């Protein structure tokens, strides 16, 4: 997942997606981030900041750029109404979920992360507890994703401090995830490595078309991918080249 806007002051380089998460679990408070002893610290930190307590917040698991405090600050600042800049971010482990790439290009010119079910997989994630307005602000930035509810029975979640939440939200791609063309889902990669892989995908005309978009220097590829016309073309190319697979979170 990621930002809707590119360019401007403080622009985040799309080649560095998903940008840096915090160095340790804690609470984002404006431009500051305070690491905490989690066993008793989150509710106290929220109270000191005058923010809604944990039991009034919704738990969302992040697997991409929503783990970055810088990204979340930008998303909240761009919303149509004031949004609290106080947000707990806690490391965790999510079971039976793997991470690849969404079969679309974001408006800012990168190919974002997307989860999919995979029995036995364990993925490092970040847990964020959002108040009602924060959640609305976040939802608005994710037009290519849908936020689904998952439970601990199917997908056990363990936070840094040992808590095992019974339920949580996760953003899943509306476009499916990228594959190698033979049914195998691509692993999550940095953007230059992903571009190189995609440049060799497809066959015949589809291969040449892919090379034309993804085969150049990463900086030029990202520049092209920031163009709406290229984003639309790329999404169609993923489908026609057999590189997009649907994701079913409702199956067995």
Topology, pairings included?
Layout (H helix, E strand, L loop, with lengths): L25 E4 L2 E4 L2 H11 L9 E5 L6 H9 L8 E16 L11 E18 L1 H9 L4 E7 L5 E3 L7 E7 L3 E2 L12 H9 L5 H10 L3 H8 L2 H13 L3 E2 L7
Parallel strand pairs: 3-8
Antiparallel strand pairs: 1-2, 1-4, 3-5, 4-5, 4-7, 6-8, 9-10
Low-confidence stretches: 4-10
How large is the share of residues in beta strands?
25-35%
Estimate the mean pLDDT confidence.
92
How many helices?
Answer: 7
Count of distinct strands:
10
The profile of the biggest β sheet is: 8 strands, mixed
End-to-end separation in angstroms reads 25 Å
Summarize the helix and strand pattern as letters.
EEHEHEEHEEEEHHHHE
Question: From the alpha-carbon coordinates, what is the Rg to the nearest angstrom?
Answer: 18 Å
What attributes characterize this protein structure?
252 residues, two-stranded antiparallel ribbon, 8-stranded mixed sheet, alpha+beta, globular, 7 helices
What does this structure look like?
This protein is α+β, with helices and mostly antiparallel strands and 252 residues long. Helices cover 27% and strands 27% of the residues. The protein has 7 helices and 10 strands. The protein has helices at 38-48, 69-77, 132-140, 191-199, 205-214, 218-225, 228-240, and strands spanning 26-29, 32-35, 58-62, 86-101, 113-130, 145-151, 157-159, 167-173, 177-178, 244-245. Strands 1, 2, 3, 4, 5, 6, 7 and 8 form an 8-stranded mixed β-sheet that branches. The chain has a two-stranded antiparallel ribbon with strand order 9-10. The longest helix is centred in the C-terminal third of the chain and has 13 residues, at 228-240. The two termini are 25 Å apart. Mean pLDDT is 92; it is low at 4-10.
């Amino acid at each position: 997942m990621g930002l809707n806007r590119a360019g401007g002051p403080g622009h985040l380089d799309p080649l560095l997606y998903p940008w840096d998460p915090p160095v340790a679990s804690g609470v984002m408070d404006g431009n500051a981030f305070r690491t905490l002893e989690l066993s008793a610290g989150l509710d106290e930190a929220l109270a000191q900041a005058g923010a809604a307590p944990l039991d009034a917040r919704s738990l969302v698991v992040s697997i991409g750029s929503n783990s970055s405090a810088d990204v979340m600050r930008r998303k909240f600042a761009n919303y149509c109404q004031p949004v609290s800049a106080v947000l707990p971010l806690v490391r965790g482990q999510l079971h039976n979920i793997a991470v690849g790439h969404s079969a679309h290009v974001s408006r800012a010119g990168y190919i974002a992360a997307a989860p999919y079910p995979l029995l036995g997989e364990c993925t490092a994630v970040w847990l964020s507890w959002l108040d009602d307005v924060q959640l609305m602000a976040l939802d608005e930035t994710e037009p290519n994703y849908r936020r689904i509810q998952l439970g601990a029975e199917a997908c056990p979640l363990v936070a840094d401090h040992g808590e095992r939440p019974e339920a949580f939200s996760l953003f899943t791609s509306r476009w499916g995830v990228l594959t190698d063309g033979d049914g195998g889902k691509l692993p999550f990669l940095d953007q230059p490595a992903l571009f190189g892989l995609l440049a060799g995908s497809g066959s015949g005309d589809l291969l040449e078309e892919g090379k034309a978009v993804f085969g150049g220097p990463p900086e030029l590829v990202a520049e092209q991918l920031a163009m709406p016309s290229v984003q639309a073309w790329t999404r169609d190319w993923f489908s026609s080249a057999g590189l997009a697979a649907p994701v079913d979170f409702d199956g067995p």
